[in-house]
Amino acid sequence: MRQPLVAGNWKLNGSLGAISELLSGIGEQLSAVKVAELAICPPFIYLGHVQRLIGKSGISLGAQDCSDQDSGAYTGEVAATMIKEFGCKYIIVGHSERRHIYAESNDRVAKKYEQVKNSQLVPILCVGETLRDREDGRTEVIIAQQLDAVLGRIGIDGFVDAVIAYEPVWAIGTGETATPEHAQKVHEYIRNKLAAISKDIAANIRILYGGSMKPENAKQLLEQNDIDGGLIGGAALKAKDFIGIALAAN
Ligand code: PGA
Q1: How many whole angstroms from 29 Cα to the centroid of ligand 1?
Q2: For residue 113, what are the CA distances in angstroms to 83, 90, 164?
Q3: 65 Cα–ligand 1 center, Å
Q4: Dihedral sign of CA atoms 189, 190, 192, 193 in order
Q5: Ranges of each domain in the chain
Q6: Which pLDDT score is estimated for 238?
Q7: Segment 67-99, tens digit of pLDDT
Q8: For residue 33, what pLDDT is reported?
Q9: CA dist 184 → 7, 38, 102, 128, 221 (Å)
Q10: Active-site hit among 97, 104, 167, 187
């Protein structure tokens, strides 16, 4: 039984004051969430602040990225082991904004993924095609390459208890959501690809959908057999919307 996970990716948003307000709004509505696990991924600098505010509420904490190195002369980087010290459970790796704006290759993403696993944290590996890839009929090819880079580096065992997020790049922050049918088809492809190596690991892995998910479309998406939650950007910045998505899993 895969527990749905609704993870908020706050991206480059927030301030000490705004975060306190957002978390108190989430806290007020938290008791209505019966099924989903909630996670919040703030910018690095606020991890300690959020850790204190969420306390023992049961909300999980995550980071949006990590270094592909564990220590040394890498100015500006943050290691997975450091993130772990702030009570994090999750680290997002390979978000399309990292892949496209900061030119992270499949290989670099795989190295980061390995760092997360070495720190005994849970990676949320983002995969997804651009609009161009989609129009060229290359969705599965692109996703296979993104998964194969990680499989090639640490093997199928690296996917035990991991999380994958399918985020079609054309749906992120655009207001355009993948139809439940399109998303389900890709999620099924991802699960089948892993199942060809290990049925058990594939059956247990949670595959989230991300890309303009909101309370109005969450239920239809979460009803699909292979959609086990959501990675939420814009809607995670409003307590009512974030909780509204989580309630769709009740
Ligand atoms: P969005 O972002 O919900 O704002 O589309 C999702 C994501 O980038 O993880």
Answers
A1: 22
A2: 14, 11, 11
A3: 15
A4: positive
A5: 8-170+198-232
A6: 98
A7: 999 999 999 999 999 999 999 999 999 999 999
A8: 97
A9: 19, 22, 29, 13, 8
A10: 167
Helix residue spans in the chain (DSSP H)? 16-29, 47-54, 80-84, 96-101, 106-118, 131-135, 139-154, 180-195, 199-204, 215-222, 239-247
Look at residue 171 in the predicted model and tell me its pLDDT.
Answer: 92
Out of 95, 114, 129, 187, pick the active-site residue: 95
Is 181 one of the annotated active-site residues of the chain?
Answer: no
Low-confidence ranges of the chain (pLDDT < 70): none
Residues with CB under 6 A from ligand 1: 9, 167, 172-173, 210-213, 231-235
Assign 8 to helix, strand or coil.
strand
pLDDT computed for residue 221 by the predictor: 98
Which residue out of 40, 64, 91, 172 has the highest number of ligand 1 atoms within 8 Å of its CB and is therefore the one to mutate? 172
Is 167 one of the annotated active-site residues of the chain? yes
Q: Which residue has the tokens 């975060």?
A: 19
* Alpha carbon distance 13, 11 (integer Å): 6
What's the CATH fold of domain 8-170+198-232?
TIM Barrel (3.20.20)
